[in-house]
Write a structure and sequence with these properties.
Layout (H helix, E strand, L loop, with lengths): L11 H18 L8 H11 L3 H18 L3 H6 L3 E9 L2 H14 L3 E6 L4 E5 L3 H9 L13 E10 L2 E9 L1 H28 L10 H12 L1 H24 L15 H23 L18
Antiparallel strand pairs: 1-5, 2-3, 3-4, 4-5
Helix pairs in contact: 2-3, 7-8, 7-9
Length: 302
């Protein structure tokens, strides 16, 4: 029929532009004043057919990611103070929180630092056994999360069966160490150059600035160590979310009776190892042959 539009297929980029423009046009007709509340946003999304959990996820990502997007040249060179990961995962809030608590305690060697109304803060477990566990790494784990100053865990219900999980790690300790190392190397180079120039033993004065230039170049590359550490910690956070999403991280099974402490469990393992070694040694040693009883000698025998 005349006047009808010919059906067209739109690629993903065009679809995103059209949806964004349509949302801008609709928002322009609304009297939002200084802004909209979360309830207004959800109502607007319901009118256009966007599920509430997607809007809440976008809202949380916007509010939590605003500070990370802003950064000066120095901040980009020095590296992040905090890394984070967030995702919508299936499950109820209580179940996810129990699964994360079991994982952080048993697998990541972390301990609860503070329980706040909206999140839980974790830090590395203290004590000899925890340090031996992380140092020896007999189970093959690297324990990257334990290297952060603290790890924040936040679980927010979106709708029935779905939650938004936000994980963040404070890596300002490794950043501070990298900056301290870069500054120390640069200062040492500056002192060396000052000493050479003050002594006046160089035929070409420009050579006196060589130690400073070398030290500045080396110091400029030191923050890369922090960048790599932050990337590994960020990957560890993403792996935790992967486990939640696939159902691999689950709550700890509640066993009847009180749970033995870590010291008792380690002592039992050591005791079991000693018993096993003693049993193996006993089986390797052949038993002595039985000796025949000695008969008493008669009086007339020589």
């Amino acid at each position: 029929m005349a006047g009808e539009l010919t059906p067209q297929r739109l690629d993903r980029a065009a679809l995103e532009r059209i949806i964004q423009r349509a949302a801008e046009l609709q928002a322009g007709e609304m009297d939002t004043g200084e802004g909209v509340t979360e309830q207004d946003l959800l109502k607007l999304g319901a009118e256009v057919g966007i599920p509430g959990r997607f809007l809440r996820q976008a809202l949380y990502e916007e509010t939590r990611g605003g500070a990370e997007r802003a950064g000066s040249v120095f901040a980009r060179w020095a590296g992040p103070k905090q890394v984070g990961a967030a995702r919508v995962v299936p499950g109820e809030k209580a179940t996810i929180e129990q699964a994360l608590e079991a994982w952080m305690t048993d697998t990541e060697a972390l301990a609860v630092k503070r329980r706040l109304p909206d999140r839980t803060l974790w830090e590395a477990q203290q004590g000899l056994f925890a340090q031996m566990r992380r140092g020896l790494a007999l189970d093959g784990k690297s324990y990257h999360l334990a290297r952060a100053l603290e790890v924040s865990v936040s679980v927010t219900s979106l709708e029935d069966g779905y939650c938004h999980v936000a994980l963040s790690a404070d890596v300002s300790n490794t950043r501070r160490g990298a900056l301290w190392g870069a500054g120390s190397v640069t200062v040492a180079g500056a002192l060396s150059s000052t000493g050479l120039l003050a002594a006046g033993i160089l035929a070409i004065p420009v050579i006196g600035f060589v130690p400073l230039a070398l030290a500045a170049g080396i110091g400029a590359t030191i923050p890369r160590v922090h960048h790599r550490a932050a990337e590994r910690i960020h990957l560890a956070l993403e792996q935790v979310l992967d486990g939640l999403e696939r159902g691999e991280i689950r709550p700890r099974r509640q066993m009847p009776g009180p749970r033995a402490s870590a010291f008792i469990r380690i002592a039992d393992e050591i005791k079991k190892s000693i018993v096993d070694v003693a049993e193996a040694v006993r089986q390797e040693v052949p038993p002595e042959p039985p000796q025949s009883p000695r008969l008493p000698r008669a009086k007339g025998d020589a």
